[in-house]
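Forum: Protein Structure Q&A
Topic: Joint prediction for protein chains with partners

I've read a bunch of threads here and the consensus seems to be that you should model interacting components together rather than docking separate models afterwards. I'd like to see that in practice. Below is the full input, 634 residues plus whatever partners are listed. Could one of the regulars post the assembled result?
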Amino acid sequence: MRMRLPAGALRRCLLPLVALLLAAAFGIGSAARAQTQQLLNVSYDPTRELYKDINALFVADWKEKTGKTIVIRQSHGGSGSQARSVIDGLGADVVTLALAADIDAIARRTGKIPADWQKRLPDNSAPYTSTIVFLVHKGNPKGIKDWGDLVKDGVAVVMPNPKTSGGARWNYLAAWAWAKRAYGGDEAKLRAYITRLYQHVPVLDTGARGSTTSFAQRGIGDVLVSWENEAFLVKREFGADKFDIVVPSLSILAEPPVAVVEGNAGPKGTLEAARAYLNFLYTPKAQAVIARNFYRPRHPEAAAPEDIARFAKLDLVTIDGEFGGWDKAQAEHFADGGTFDQLYKPQR
Amino acid sequence: MRDLRLSLRASSGRSDPARLLFFALCFGFLALFLLLPLLVTFVEAFSRGVGVYLDSLADPDARSAIRLTLLVAAIAVPLNVVIGIAAAWLVARFEFRGRQLLVSLIDLPFSVSPVIAGLVYILLFGAQGYFGPWLKAHDIEIVFALPGIVLATLFVTFPFVARELIPHMQALGGSEEEAALMLGASGWRTFLHVSLPNVKWSLLYGVLLCNARAMGEFGAVSVVSGRIRGVTATLPLQVEILYNEYNTAAAFAVASLLAMLALLTLVLKSILEWRFADSIAAARGH
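Posted by a regular:
Agreed with the consensus. Here's the joint model:
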């Protein structure tokens, strides 16, 4: 019971359909342009609370200084995947990511950020620092004191995937730096330690926040290897009586950098506001908020003393001193075929 | 064989233990894996009181997510209806080269992971993608903006309308349409006055399912959305964002909207099935 298709019919009915589809898909996108200035801050996972506070301050400050209203939009996710999105065209005015390598990647692959971006703002373009610590259940039932305890039998370690998460890469390098000293530079033992460490990880989430919710909300694992700021935040959100922070003997100075994406902000006409926004991070007002949100401020004198007193003093290696900078560390450890790919052998 | 059938028939008495077991198993499973999560959604949503619940939904970001979700569905569903009808009509009524290919293509979104669908759009329309430079030169945004979200939604919801219509149209056969054509009606008129009214209930059914999926899609949309709060976050993405911000009550409040959408879909679907059981049964090819 089928008729033969009349030659013209197909064309007559399909062409208008295709036209309609295209019109609908494209027309609306270009119509959605805002009147008030908007900045898009593409950031990594644990900064959600920090930038909520900073943005409110900056909006008020900007209004006071220029009389103009500005809206700051946020996007959060694993640092690596956020960088990937900006490379693929996400229209960030500023990026505030977990590590320099991710901003380098955007600069290299899109040219939207000048190659010397890290010299354009003070302190390596990192207005705050942090480090990597352990978060354990109250009373530390598994007796975790240092990196070596993470590979003891029956200890489940929660940390994110270094391929997608910036925090995870700091985790990895901190563990590496500790093991290098602990095994007296014995390369084979160091590598065996890293392999064993990742065999103790039941889930590799894509971002730091995913790991935190796995550990704190879903109750997976005995220890969360985490940003210091994230560990403090968990204690605040879930109650100080549930978790303890354990500071290892050695960790890494994590410098989460910021940069203006000039190739986006320029054409949009938001360059001036984007620069002001990042400069604002170094002001005493912002530095105080940074410390209150558990990040280590560059100017501790601007912060409340009790916020500063929280931070434990510990030995910190630096990415430049220990690993020869992010370019080298990224290529050696996290690129395809790097040490992480060589050493990551999940069990089961 | 006959013995087996006899014993099966004999065992269909009321208090038969095997039957009770199946009954308990089936409903236990449904209660545990469908009803309980639904219940938990509402319990968690109201865990901090009705005030917090309403505030969560009145939040500008939540309202923007609701608006965006409605807008995406309002574009994607009608487009899918039009294309779905066209595709179903072609497949059911015409013999042409590539017909089998069209049928396979219609089913493609069912077999492709939504995440892959999203990534493909990034590969095509992203800044580094095939059409990226051209789109940039013409100042057209697709990924990380509304058009990308609509495209991703279109992709995952495409089969729903066509899949409902094809078996129904095939079961009805083309004799009424042939009659209309022979009486001198144009092809277009035949379609509007004969073909379409015949399948209106299965069309409605397809629209319902298509809409539910359009509003609830996470995977494909999350890849192309860029997760900008208050701009490109649809309801399902907003749930994830809120959950990741330890804002559980608000996350479940937004999730409860999706749950209510699901319930509404279910009720409408039941009404359709009850009221128009015959024509839907025909659509299913029974």
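DSSP finds 15 helices and one strand in chain B.
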